Amino acid sequence: MGFIGAGPVTQAIHLPHLAGLSDRLHIAHVMDVDPGTAAAVAARCGARHSSSVEELLADDGVDVVAICSPHAFHAEQAVACARAGKKAVLVEKPFATTTADAERIAEASVETGVPVIVGAMHTYDPAHLAAEEHWGDLPDTARHIRSVIQLPPNARYEALATQLHSLPQPPPQRDLSDPAARAAAISGSLLGLAIHNLPLVRRFLPHVEAVDTALLLRPFGYRVTLHGPDGRTAELIGHIGTAWRPEWTFEVWGAHSELRLDFTPSYVRAGSAEATVRTPDRTLRFGPYQHNGYDAEWLHLADLADGTAPPRHTPGELVADLRYATGLAALAGTVLRQQGVAT
Questions:
Q1: Which residue in 64, 75, 96, 102 is deepest, having the highest Cβ count within 10 Å?
Q2: What is the pLDDT of residues 255-267, one digit of tens each?
Q3: What start-end ranges are recorded for coiled-coil regions in this protein (predicted)?
Q4: Within this chain, do residues 201 and 301 fall inside the same structural domain, yes or no?
Q5: What are the phi and psi torsion angles at 259 (to 5°)?
Q6: Are 127 and 286 in contact (CB under 8 A)?
Q7: Which range of residues forms the domain containing residue 16?
Q8: Are 294 and 183 in contact (CB under 8 A)?
Q9: Collapsing DSSP states into helix, strand and coil, what is residue 35?
Q10: β-strands 274-279, 220-227: how paired?
Q11: Is 22 found in the same domain as 36?
């Protein structure tokens, strides 16, 4: 494996997960624009290092690539990985920043035959996949969806997970009295945090007709309500505050059944989610399983590189997920341009 980008997510989430999967995946090359970070992170796993994407792609010892760079570089780098003939590529969420860029990645994947997956770990979670086999017609009968992501600051998890080498500079404070800044802030929070669950939301609310309310939560977060053309509604809450107790839930209520998924926080290797499917005559529970969604996506990447499994999601589906997320962010931004800011 080669890593493009060796920031906190690579150091505190991906490397610990891959250490437990060393029978399938070995980190061979770490690239980061900061040569010191690249060298320090590579030393932890006995890998080569560089500060050039071209050098990593030219490394014959790299079969698959994980793109963990800033969002704006995902499309260019994913296309380059496919053109370089790598066996498989994982692009951290979001897939791209625009639909056009997502389509570029998809086209390169189809043309080269190099499979590309997105690091939307919850779509790979074993408990979610087990529940999917038993939720029946819930995608057709869903009436309300609720996604809640309540987390402590990332730095608290990162400090417990690993000793970070070099912290990126925090983004500058926005003047949220500016309507354009409010729109940019809600877009960033939805594409940075809500996007973990948005592929699940789209499964049960495939078309967004309008965003009814959009609020920014301090110090970081959002509350967005929306509805579809058939009367379905959804509520999305994300908040990174000062409390320690995390909550990462996804719930769906339908005409005759309901679904609840309780996910473990990203920085905690605590197994899969726990899933509950309820109907009038039965309650089914799944998980927790040993592997969580991160483990499952890495193992799927190894299967793709070995040619022993097809991609779970087609390039067209990945583009549709990104289009859904950016469309939602645009609608929420339009609402926020006309509203104040929550505290």
A1: 102
A2: 999 999 999 988 7
A3: none
A4: yes
A5: -135, 140
A6: yes
A7: 2-120
A8: no
A9: helix
A10: unpaired
A11: yes
